[in-house]
Amino acid sequence: MDSDSRPGRQTSADWRADLLAGITLRPAAAPAVNRLGWPDYDGRPALRWGAGPIAGVPAVAAVWDFAVHGGSFGEADAAGFAEAAAAAVASRRPLVSFLRSGGTRLQEGVAGLVGLPRAALALATLDAAGVGHVAIADQPTTGGVWVTIGSRCDLRCAVGGATVGFAGPRVVAATTGAPPPAGSHTAASAFAAGLVDAAPAPDGVTDWLHRALIALTPPSPIEPAARASPPRPPRPSRPLAPPVRTVRADLPAGFEKVAARSGWEQVVAARTGERADGATVLRALLPDGVDLVGPDSLVGARIGALLGAGTAPHGGGGTAPHGGGGIRAVVVAVGARRGSAPGPAGYRLLARAARLAGKLGVGLVTLVDTPGAAGGAHAESAGIAAAIGDAMAAVLACPSPTVSVVLGEGGSGGALAATVTDMVAMTPNSYFTALSPEGAATTLRIPVEQAADRAGLRPTDLHRLGFADCLLPATTSDQVAQAAAGLLAELSWQDPTQRREWRQQRWSTELRDSL
Fold first, then answer.
1. CATH class of 26-216
2. Could you give the CA distance from residue 392 to residue 390 in angstroms, rounded to a whole number?
3. Model confidence band, residue 27 (pLDDT cutoffs 50, 70, 90)
4. What pLDDT does 176 receive?
5. Is 435 helix (H, G, I), strand (E, B) or coil?
6. Helix, strand, or coil here: 48?
7. Nearest to residue 63, comparing CAs of 76, 53, 75, 77?
8. Taking residues 212-228, what's their average pLDDT?
9. Residue 335's closest CA among 359, 309, 366?
10. Which terminus, N or C, of the chain has the lesser number of Cβ atoms within 10 Å?
11. What is the pTM of this model?
């Protein structure tokens, strides 16, 4: 950053200084043309960019200087941001946007405004190349920069105490006639609303950013992840086949008891028996991961290296795949605790997570434990049906290896949206059904126990029908995490094209004829 004391500079002891110490920032571009004839307008860009280590991880930085026209975004800034994104794509290093901006460069009028779609297109190149993007929204981050860059990146952080929002508080007051309420438009309120994934104090940004960049960095800064893997171990002697076609005559330990239960007894076991919940397994799978946050606490998501295993050079994942060993993944708990009924925001987080896994080419693990999605007037008016449908489409379309583990309850489309994966596993105290037993009993006008007994909802039933691929004799969070990591590792060695064809076939054909 510059060392001068131009008006508007926030502080000479900038918390970003240490993070950017190893980077030489270059001016974004030549000054913009003064088309509107503003007096003494120099058109200098507020954005500069450069490449180097950030929080110990090689990356590309795009840095806004609030001292230059309030960090506002105009033509020259858009050109510089496109250059930074192109450098990130070329080096396959994550892009970090350090935001301090009041929005669009008003002195440039519409010419400044059209810098926003230029930034959006630059970010689309990152998406197409599978390169990660992190944004740090500092004091202040508002307007088009928040809309186009801060709110659309892969991992989002707002610095504690910062003003963050679509319209700044003064603009809100001027356009609505009343200032926003106290506590609105802040990093804390954005985090509470699920608009950002973290809101640390300035001295906590480095730790969060290090973990975020580790999670987003591919195994090599030059080669795509698919080409950077170490030599594969010997392939199994049996030919790979669609998992859904594999049938076991014997039952794993613990499932003999399941086969002896009635359907209703299985439901009771799922609701009251000893087993892990989604939030606990999520943490066990990715103990050092970075959270993806949404406003619905009933769905949790995280990205990182499975089981906290060692990472490849430059902080990336992608080391030996067996047992999780460094494989990066996105894990989503659809039902973070027992009895969870996620709402639309939860399914939007599931869709975001699935798309991120696909963009980065990392595995997707879903942990299913919900009797069904939220109903009621609020969920309905908030678009629960469309949110479930979009999430299901995102999981089906994810090009990465995908595994779902049904931990407990699995009810209706709310559970199915997270279960349309390459491989479906079920634990002893779990079930899956077209509608919760209570809902089915009401619809069919029969006792709830009878509705459960006739639903074919036990793991053993679902395995014989071909809905479930494997039965996991795992009940603790560590056991489930180990098993899920192993399943994802197995899938990671399959031919990607063939695996996706099998998924398409699996979810577009009927189940077996009968139990």
1. alpha beta
2. 5
3. confident
4. 81
5. coil
6. strand
7. 77
8. 61
9. 366
10. C
11. 0.86
∠ Cα 414 418 421 (to 5°): 140
Residue scoring higher pLDDT (173 or 284): 284
Distance CA 205, CA 32 (A): 33
Cis peptide bond prior to 342, omega within 30° of 0: no
Diameter of the chain by CA atoms?
A: 84
> Given this model, what pLDDT does residue 326 score?
66
**How many other CB atoms sit within 10 Å of the CB of residue 159?**
25
Kindly write down the DSSP assignment for every residue of 263-280, as one continuous string. HHHHHHHHHHSS---HHH
Per-residue model confidence (pLDDT) at position 235: 36
Torsion (CA) 506, 508, 510, 511 in degrees, nearest 10:
30
Task: Please report, as a single letter, which amino acid is at residue 162.
Answer: A
Residues linked to residue 364 through DSSP beta bridges, in sequence order: 330, 402
Nearest to 332 by CA among 373, 372, 274, 281: 281
Decide if 261 contacts 458 (C-beta within 8 A). Answer: yes
Mean pLDDT of the chain: 86
266 vs 316, higher pLDDT: 266
Torsion 364-370-375-378 (CA) sign? negative
DSSP 308-332: G----GGG---S--GGGTT-EEEEE
Residues 126, 86 contacting (CB under 8 angstroms): no
The distance in angstroms from the start CA to the end CA of the chain is 68
Question: Where do we find the tokens 């969060």?
Answer: 208
Q: Is 484 helix (H, G, I), strand (E, B) or coil?
A: helix
Buried b (16+ CB within 10 A) or exposed e, 266-276: bbbbbeeeebb
Place of tokens 């609505």: 176
Whether 307 has a pLDDT exceeding 90, the answer reads no
Cα separation of 7 and 21, whole Å?
A: 23
Helix axes 384-397, 344-360, angle to 10 degrees: 20
Cα–Cα distance for residue pair 343/116, rounded to 1 Å: 31
CA 41 to chain centre: 42
C-beta separation of 403 from 422 below 8 A: yes
- The string of pLDDT tens digits covering residues 139-168 is 999 989 999 999 999 999 999 999 999 887
pLDDT digits (tens, 9 = 90+) for 392-407: 999 999 999 999 999 9
Task: Label residue 250 exposed, middle or buried (CB < 10 Å: 0-12, 13-18, 19+).
Answer: exposed
Confidence of residue 408 (pLDDT cuts 50, 70, 90): very high
Pick the CATH number of 242-506 from 3.90.226.10, 2.160.10.10, 3.40.50.920, 3.30.750.24: 3.90.226.10
The per-residue pLDDT for range 87-112, each reduced to its tens digit, is: 999 999 999 999 999 999 999 999 99
CA angle 81, 315, 49 (to 5 degrees): 20
Length of the chain equals 515
What is the pLDDT at residue 219?
62
